Amino acid sequence: MQRLLAEFDVLAETVDSPEEKERVRAARNAAVLAADDDEIFGQVIQGYDRADLAEAFLGSLLFGIPMFVEGGTNEVGSFLAANPLSLFGTVVGTIGLAIGILYVADIQDVRVYKPILGVVPRRLVGVLGSSFLTALVMMTAWGRVGWSDPLLAVATVVAAFVPMSIGAALGDILPGS
Fold first, then answer.
1. What is residue 116's DSSP assignment?
2. Which of 76, 94, 140, 164 could crosslink 60 through cysteines, CB 3.0-4.6 Å?
3. How far apart are the first and last CA of the chain?
């Protein structure tokens, strides 16, 4: 729990607007309240269904909405588009973060259920897929990316995808379903 609270503190330092700071504070408080509920933490999580996908979607939106309105997302996207190695590293790092949150950090006991092709966990695909698709659709719908330069658009979506995948992973496993 201390690591999670420390992560919220770091996140609070990175946001600029009072509204974003309030959202981070509210999320931190919700985590503290949830930690007091023994039924949330320590459950065995197995299977993967539409409820899990909805939780991942909600978590990605919670972390993503500030990214949609923040101009820094486009600046990072421009940098990533100009540096393909960084873009690749960001995607790989994001996948690693999601794996770490879901399967390594021991926030919950998450079991792999019927992996795709016998190897790829459904939960990981759901978390990463929902957060990337949400970033893609929302960034396009809100006019944050233009597709005249596809590499720049994808790089900007990837910049939003990083925190959204963290939110999706946490949103999926913290309710404990």
1. B
2. 164
3. 19
Write out pLDDT tens, residues 109-131: 777 878 889 888 888 999 999 99
Q: Which amino acid is at 127?
A: V
CA distance 3 to 37: 18
Say whether pTM exceeds 0.90.
Answer: no
pLDDT of residue 74: 92
The closest of 47, 163, 166, 44 to 99, measured between CA atoms, is 166
Q: What is the pLDDT of residues 44-63, one digit of tens each?
A: 666 677 888 888 899 899 89
Q: Quote the strand ranges of the chain, DSSP E.
A: 44-45, 109-110
Rounded to whole angstroms, what are the CA distances from 139 to 33, 96, 142, 158? Answer: 32, 23, 5, 10
Distance CA 105, CA 168 (A): 15
Give the Å distances, CA to CA, from 42 to 47, 53, 56, 106. 16, 20, 19, 9
